[in-house]
Amino acid sequence: MTTGSEPAPAERAVDLNADLGEEVTDDAALLAVVTSANVACGFHAGHPALMREVCAEAARRGVAIGAQVSYDDRENFGRIPREVPYGRLREQIAHQVGELADAAARSGVEVRYVKPHGALYHRVLDDEEQAAAVLDGSVLDGSGLPVMTMPGVLQEKAAAAGRRVLHEGFPDRGYGPDGRLLPRHRAGAVLTDVARIARRAVELAAQVHSVCVHGDTPGAVAHAQAVRRELERAGYLLRSC
Question: From the CA atom positions of the chain, what is the Rg in Å?
Fold first, then answer.
């Protein structure tokens, strides 16, 4: 796939990612379907042993591994905004990425990208300081990891810094008129109809590098399976970015 923020739809290739290692879904079943795994790094969910387990299975199946970094907030699953100073947040991001990198190395693979989770994901679409903390904390061996996100400040800062940007879309979530995801408490924010989710994935695939299925949504495995089938039926090659 391409290296900038614009995908190459003529290539008819797209990534399928899902959140894993959160202790709320069937990780093995999802890893049999997706091409990229956003692995929880312990701050909103997960733990080192689970990280190692997910990385080992991902490596066996050839699934790319990404660091799903979050606010330090297991109580609220990382979905409550936090006022965290730049330096502290940068250190927290670096810690999470480092933990996952160690787990991945045990299976002979590497962390391929970083993706914020929950409230942090939405915060860095607009917050310059916290976006900078995510970027500065997600450096491995002197190289900044590619960033998976929606359009916003984090994507802009990453591109300006020469970082690879992976634009993603969410077939299992509702969007508002501003192109952002509807808050989860709003009607229509979380979609559960499998056929509708699969159709939306095909619509999004021409506009993004990766489509995401939320691993903590009930029916996540069935959603991912339907999305993959529909994308392949539409002529897309499923592969990691």
Answer: 16
